[in-house]
Amino acid sequence: MAVMQNDSDQVAAIAEKIRAGKTSLGIEFGSTRIKAVLIDDTYRTIASGDYGWASHLEHGLWSYTVEEIWKGLQAAYAEMAGDVEAAYGEKLTHIGHIGFSAMMHGYLAFDEAGELLVPFRTWQNTNTHEAHEKLSELFQYNIPERWSIAHLYQCVLDNEEHVSKVAFFTTLAGYVHWKLTGRKVLGVGDASGMFPIDPTTRTWEAEFIRQFNELPEVAAQPWKLEDLLPEPLVAGTPAGELTEEGAKLLDPTGTLQPGITLAPPEGDAGTGMMATNSVRKRTGNVSAGTSIFATVVLEGKLKALHPEVDLVTTPAGDLAGMSHANNFTSDLNAWVGLFGQFAEALGHPVDAGTLYGTLFRAAIADDVDANCGGLLNYPFRSGEFLAGLPEGRPLFARKPEARMSLGNFMRAQLFGAFSPVKIGMDVMTKDEHVQVDSLVGHGGIFTTPKVAQKILAAAFDTPIKVMATAAEGGAWGMAVLGDYLWHADEDLADYLDNRVFADAESVTETPDEKDVEGFEDFFARFRAGLPIEHAAIAAIPLED
């Protein structure tokens, strides 16, 4: 339902804005949900829609089908457009600006005819370890396993049949934008998860491209890397217009008209920065969903190569350090779902908000042990580079005499979920002495007041701020990037401070000393117990 649905004067005012095109639409393809958010020129959400989906294994690799991409996009858009008509009596024929964002990285490769050469390979895949090691060594710059260039180079190393036919490769956001506008472009933040970006030129690192092309196995290909990559664009740059074919692809009813200007398509890291006002140097955010990443905008380059830290950019092209963990809420959601089934079996079903809220609050109740009472939980549904795991096996473990209680169990769930991302964050703050003035949490897990915020403050031993927009997430952040097209004469950080977040409400949770000590104890046991995961990978086949 629309957020703003109060008195008739307010509804009439919003309806007039919709007719005048004083709106921006952001659509983000998350790992489990595609969400569409329409905002007005005061950054209020006036309509939304979403569509649930999930990746699946295809020949041992995580993927989504092209059919799922378009079905989900159309469903999320249709629900949002229906929300507009129901709340304001307007058919959505025009939108001021549109922007698409998506989970970063992965591999979507196309031939000269624009046909997909292999099924979409998502960021979850860790089959690219050889490429990661060789390219990181070649560039002396961390190239994570999930980056698009690692996927392409691994295909070269594996002599995959399709490699010689590649004419273009991009991310999910870049693919959707291309199909709707005809333009092969990418927001610089999303681009920085394909191949390294030079923060001075805000485009591809030319020297790295030269080095890549000179690798013997690459030089043998009929293409040059620079010819395969999309064009990076900084925030505020018009990135094309919705074509007639694109309008019909987005809205098959034909109601939405072509000609709408689109913002550069971004990645979920960039939209997370936007949603948390974290694009200024020494600011940071923690974006928590199916995966989790902690990002800090850097004052300069890191002193050394650290495989645990990705170097990406803000939507404006400034360098940022990121600790990215592939796994966060999938295992947690599975356990919460189990408790929901138990409630149903008792004849007392509860809604999701009550279920999550009740279980989460148990994790910080007075009777819990600060270190989870000796319980351990490993959230690894898929492989996790930070933990050295090629595959994932979710596991719960405990000593026979550990204190098993609901509070300790849920605390172990949340501690375990935040532990992988702490590995890379510790490298930045403890090894590289990166300074952080503010760290903002966002994502659905922060919807329950205080709980995840308090635990994250313990994990990073730093104050954590949560804004009123925390649950809006990346789709709202992408809509704001769409609005920025009208204000691109302003610095992006100033635009956010002075316009978007000028009156934003927030709550800050400072670290509790006992919680910090408890987390450090849990984290030490978490890392010491990682051989359990390796044993599970060896003993339990991924696919029967």
From TrEMBL:
Keyword Kinase in annotation: yes
InterPro entries: ATPase_NBD, FGGY_C, FGGY_Carb_Kinase, FGGY_N
Gene Ontology terms, MF aspect: kinase activity
Pfam family, one: FGGY_N
Alphabetical UniProt keywords: Carbohydrate metabolism, Kinase, Transferase, Xylose metabolism
Domain Carbohydrate kinase FGGY C-terminal: from-to ranges: 285-483
Carbohydrate kinase FGGY N-terminal domain sequence ranges: 25-212
Statement: the UniProt record of this protein carries the keyword Signal: no
An annotated GO BP: D-xylose metabolic process
Similarity-based family: Belongs to the FGGY kinase family.
UniProt-recorded name of the protein: Ribulokinase
